[in-house]
Every structure is written in structure tokens, then in C-alpha cells.
Design brief:
Helices cover about 65% and strands about 0% of the residues.
Length: about 160
């Protein structure tokens, strides 16, 4: 079905229709089709649909505004592979609440540049388990303001 949809057709779909797309259809979306979706359409996706955006090509279709508009539940539904596909601008757009929703497996899969792109509020919002999951390379990538934002419990948990 998705191979027959055009970007104009997907852009014209009401959010209620987007919310009804099966995960199979979502899995087949190309980056161009995902990019054609509005932020409101992206926000209408269920956590299951977000998780179904399995290809890095589909994830790359999300704009930084789309990433920033995701709910905590939608962010939590991203796999570590999907999180790895986010640009540093996307990572920087994550709120502290969204970062908190990312599972430890996704946090330790981030690149040094992605970690460096996190805001101090986002770094302060990570759990101690997520701090413990940071590799020594990732800890080295933290800026001084990010380190200053860490709590004593987070610092104690660093690997």
C-alpha cells in the first residue's frame, strides 16, 4: 500500500486517518513520505506506530520540530537503532522529559556528538541507570556545563 501513496496524499491525510495506518504500512514508509507528514500527523501516531518506523531512512524523514513534538511515550517507543539515527540537532531538540523517557539501551548507543548535543537540562534529567549506562567515551564527550548539571547520584553512577 505505501508504495502507492504519494507525498501529496500522505500530507493530505487527516490525523485521524494517519492514526489508523497499520504498523505494516508504517514500516513501509520512506523518508520522503515521513517528511511529508505534518507535526500534527506525527503527534497522532501511536507508540506502536512510532516503534514501527524501523528504518533509519524513515526516521531521517522526521524533522527536528517533529522530534521535539513527540510525547514522552512516543520517545520511549523509539528503539536504540531509531535513536541512533537521530541527528545531533534532533537530539538537542529533546526536552529533559523526553530524554528521561529514552531507555538506557538507547542512551548508551548514542554517539559522542549526540551526547554533546544534549542540553544541560536533558543531561540533568537522565536517570542514574542511564548515567551508569554511559561509556567512558560518552562521559568524555560531556561538556563542562553538562557535567555541572549532573547530580551527585548521577556522578556516582557514571561508569
Amino acid at each position: 500500500m505505501t508504495t502507492n501513496l504519494t507525498t501529496a496524499q500522505i500530507a493530505a491525510m487527516p490525523t485521524s486517518s494517519i492514526a489508523q495506518l497499520s504498523t505494516t504500512v508504517i514500516q513501509g514508509l520512506t523518508s520522503a513520505l515521513v517528511a511529508a507528514m505534518s507535526t500534527a500527523q506525527i503527534k497522532a501516531l501511536s507508540t506502536g506506530q512510532i516503534a514501527a518506523l524501523t528504518s533509519s531512512a524513515a526516521i531521517s524523514g522526521l524533522s527536528t520540530a517533529d522530534i521535539a513534538a513527540l510525547s514522552s511515550a512516543q520517545v520511549a517507543a523509539l528503539s536504540s537503532q531509531e535513536v541512533d539515527g537521530l541527528s545531533t540537532a534532533d537530539i538537542a531538540a529533546l526536552s529533559a522529559t523526553q530524554v528521561k523517557a529514552v531507555v538506557s539501551a538507547a542512551i548508551d548507543g548514542l554517539s559522542s556528538s549526540q551526547i554533546a548535543a544534549l542540553s544541560t537540562a536533558a543531561i540533568a534529567g537522565i536517570s542514574t541507570a542511564e548515567a551508569a549506562a554511559l561509556t567512558s567515551d560518552l562521559v568524555s564527550a560531556l561538556g563542562t556545563a553538562q557535567v555541572a548539571a549532573l547530580t551527585t547520584a548521577q556522578i556516582a553512577a557514571l561508569s
